[in-house]
Amino acid sequence: MGKLSRMVDTDALHAWIREFARLVEQHQDLLTELDSAIGDADHGANLHRGMSAVVEVLRAETPSTPAELFKRTGMTLVSTVGGASGPLYGTAFLRMSATAGEAETLDAGDLAKILRAALEGVVTRGKAQAGDKTMYDALAPAVRALEEAVGTGQPLAEALDAAARAAERGREATTAMIARKGRASYLGERSAGHPDPGATSVTYLVVAAATALA
Amino acid sequence: MVAVVVVSHSRALARAAVALAAEMAPTARIEIAAGLDEKTLGTDATAIRSALAAADDGSGVVVLMDLGSAVLSAELALEMVDDELRSRVLLCPAPLVEGLVAAAVAAASGAGRDEVAREAIAGLAGKQAQLGEAPAPAQPAPAQPAPARPGAAQPAPAGEFGAVATVRVGNPHGLHARPAARLVTEARRLDAGVEVRNRTTGSGWVPATSLSRVATLGALRGHEIDVRASGPRARQAVDEIVAVAARQFDETPPELEKIGEWGGDDPVDVGKLDGATTGVRRGQPASAGIGLGPAWRRSSTSPDLPDEPSRGADAEWRRVTDAVAAVRREIDKIWEGNPEASIFDAHLLLLDDAELLGEARRRIDAGAAAPPAFRGAAGLIAADFDALEDPYLRGRGDDVHAVADQVLRAMLGIAERTPAGDGVLVAADLTPAEAATLDPVRVKGVLLAFGSATSHGAILARTRGIPMVVGAGPAVLSVPPGAAVALDGSTGEFAVNPPGDVLTRFRERAASRSARARAAGSRAHQPAVTADGVRIEVAANIGSLADATAAAEHGADLAGLVRTEFLFLDRAAAPGADEQFATYRQLAAALGGRRITLRTLDVGGDKPLRYAPAPHEQNPFLGVRGIRHSLAHPALFAEQLLAIARVARETPVSVMFPMVSTVAEIVAARRMLDDALARTGPAAGLRVGIMVEVPAAALRAAAFTPYVDFVSVGTNDLTQYTLAAERGNAAVPADGLDPAVLRLVGGICRRAGVPVAVCGELAGDEAAVPLLTALGVRELSVAPPAVPLVKEAVRATRLDLAGPLAERALELADAADVRRLSVQSGR
Fold first, then answer.
1. What residue spans carry the region label Disordered (chain B) (predicted)?
2. What pLDDT does residue A41 have?
3. Which residue in B173, B223, B347, B456 is the catalytic one?
4. Which end of chain A has fewer surrounding CB within 10 Å, N or C?
């Protein structure tokens, strides 16, 4: 029970965002490379620009609640990313903020709810379905894995690990898919053979959670 | 004056476009939200929000966007502004440059918001007229732009319809739920704004993508329906709709007859059903057992709504979308277990219904909390149905209420309503979801006006041991709650308010049946040996870990059929060999290490996998399914064979390939299996077989002998392929006891040269046990709870007597004669 009731505070969530920013920076070239194979070669640069801005904004003034942290992250991404990942990640973080509500700290169940809200935000914004070769294909299995792990009472660290593994598998599965959304969809069959850059970056978001929050 | 906001990735592009428009309309009010800065391409939702606020003077704002993130950012910006401003903004799908010029001119001349948007969309007309019709795009065109408000209805603007046609409704009951759902599905698939109206009644145009709106056309047989479409693929869209209409919206003729039969001119009233005057009536047997008890109907009470104020339109709307998403997941889950649960199509479409969601949204925007807003919207839609003349369509209002209640329960966090009641459930039909949640202790039986004994609801009722009679006729729907009902699910007999002697007869049957069940249960774990000493393996068909556990409890000798589809459906990517291996091993463990017969993935075009996209097939049951599908997806197949080979090294495993029809298929499959075994090392206990479901394979069973260790007859598909009768269709008899099917089974047993199993529904039919075993079948694989009684049926069989019986059965006219013979001979 001790492990189950483990809570995550704003500082820990802040660390998560920073870790995500770090992964995006580290893999910026890979993201751009993937995007150049099937899109307009800007995902790495765009997201890096956005997350660097987020890190700056959060450093300048430390948010006091999870909701505020997510809201500022989302709003910053919305106005600095530029490409489709701006409104998509922006919506995801804004939904996370709304779901976090007044809470000061979050437990594993809250995190599952928050990521579910993020996923539904992505669906609302992008109209993506499973198999469209988008970030949905990595985020959805991650959320499901997290919900299942939480439902069966697994400790936070293991639940997040399961989510990260599920995201990774989902990301890998996008390799074979044919894009049906965004600019990659113009390539049709030729979009198969590379993992989706959005699925890749959102996998980093989940992996970052497993690293920073466990 | 109506203002225009230009959203673009490029500030330079936006400025140039505005300059172009200003030449035509210098006084137009145009705001720009473009680029992240002078040089950086990108769109910024907060900048769009500011532009909207700057543009708004109360008379309306039309937003024109370039592509991709411009659309997403504009939608997000719309979420960020207050409700009042949002109500004045329209996101317009017009092309940016042409649209802007046309919009600026219209706005400057004082046009209203919607007219400005229409002009913008029509901005392409000049160029199209000059250059002729554009070639159809090679790739699917990008999805239609989303409506400005989530879920709001989006009627295409007038004057933009590139194609029109008129079709006549040929379906005897008009465009009732299923054909209407077919039309809506087709319209949604097509990349064009399709609208329809009932020319005969002079109705207005409605979007063909809205099930509720299409149903309100009240389109009866013989009515003429006008179809029109807009967009670059309008002609193609109208042609497709005309083609679907010509096929009577893919409604199968037998289904039409069935409805005609029950909805005929000679309604039976409840008085005639009363046992005192007419005695026992007969429907069709669907799930064996005696059901006695008071009639009850599904509760129509909706959940109580809490009296709470709105927490703001955005929050309330999110409650609606979250609840709808949750219900969608629930329905998806049922799909997962029941690949044929197409009955939920109409429900899924309702969850998507722009009319329903748009009305809910309007009410929320007007200050209502989500639950009353949604219920009110559903009530309105249902009222549209209730006002229709056709009784069948009128009944579809119930669907709306049912779905609405499900959404409300999800919204309020109330547990899923189980159809709860004590006694005999009387209903029109039973969904698999309902069948799966009935409490077998409280529900003594199910009496359905319609339905089919081969439906998934019926299969679930059998699995759960709930007696059921189907096809009892619509008159049973007027049986008053509380009336005494007696039914026999083995014979199809039922009686309402039966007189004492009839009731006694049913009671005696119930007593003798439960005595038999007790005796069977006590011997379930012993082998099944015929009275003259031949051992018959009685196996279980399983499709989940729970089934495997139940199979072990009920004394199954092995798992004769593991439907591995449960691992593959409703997920974005295929399970890897590791995951499959782990699951197969769990199944074997749950069965205490008894042999498991793994059927490789059996899917096809009727239930495509998301990760193995399949082309559209006119008739998926005669298309790429079963082993054909596996051979067409070698990577997927190899992964499954690898998992099977690995688990076969640890525990006794048989593998069988579904829907084999040619020797080449089994040769190819075995080669791939050998490849897998080359990677894992040999598996001593592995047996290889095929499912015989196609008459071609049944007739040439000997040709397969060199390649297999056993064959298993899938009587469900073999029956439907032999008799050309779809098993879910109550109007066409698809009884596996048909002499034609029995002849095929007999032929397989004589020619196969390897042990023959039967793993279809027929194996669990006690009347079939002596015939099948006499024909040479040595393994019967059945639903787990049926194992004990099938073992008893084996023990009661004498093959020396059953042999001549089977000989005679092969000569009879039809399945009904075979069943009579079986009854006469003392079964």
1. 131-156, 257-316
2. 78
3. B456
4. N
Rounded CA separation A145/A169 (Å): 11
Residues 6+ apart with CB under 8 A from B374: B320, B323, B360, B404, B407, B408, B411
Is B401 considered catalytic here? no
pLDDT level of residue B273 (50, 70, 90 thresholds): very low
Residues of chain A found within 8 Å of residue B41, distances taken between Cβ atoms: 42, 82
Q: Is B749 assigned a catalytic role? A: no
In order, the DSSP letters of B501-554 are HHHHHHHHHHHHHHHHHHHHHHTTTSPEE-TTS-EEEEEEEESSHHHHHHHHHT
Q: Give the pLDDT band of residue B542 (cuts 50, 70, 90).
A: very high
* Domain regions of chain B by residue span: 3-131, 161-261, 273-299+419-520, 313-412, 523-824
Asked if the C-beta of B299 comes within 8 angstroms of chain A's C-beta atoms, the answer is no
> Could you read off the pLDDT of B163-189 as tens digits, one per residue?
888 888 887 767 766 677 778 778 877
- Flag whether residue B137 sits within 8 Å of chain A, measured between CB atoms: no
CATH assignment, B523-824: 3.20.20.60
- Averaged confidence pLDDT in chain B: 83
* The CATH number of the domain covering residues in B273-299+419-520: 3.50.30.10
Single out the residue of A112, A123, A120 nearest to residue A163, CA to CA: A112
The enclosing H or E element of B486 equals: strand B484-488
- The pTM of the full predicted model, rounded to 2 decimals, is 0.46
Contacts of A82 in chain B (CB under 8 A): 9, 36, 40-44, 69
**B44 vs A84: CB contact, 8 Å cut-off?**
no
| pLDDT tens, position by position, A66-108 | 999 999 999 999 989 988 899 999 999 999 999 999 999 999 9
Nearest CA in chain B to A172: B573
CB contact, 8 Å: B527 with chain A?
no
Given a cut of 90, whether residue A160 has pLDDT beyond it is: yes
Task: Measure in Å the smallest separation between the Cα of B432 and chain A Cα atoms.
Answer: 24
Assigned CATH topology for domain B313-412:
Enzyme I; Chain A, domain 2 (1.10.274)
| Model confidence band, residue B155 (pLDDT cutoffs 50, 70, 90) | very low
From A79, A123, A176, residue closest to B45, measured CB to CB: A79
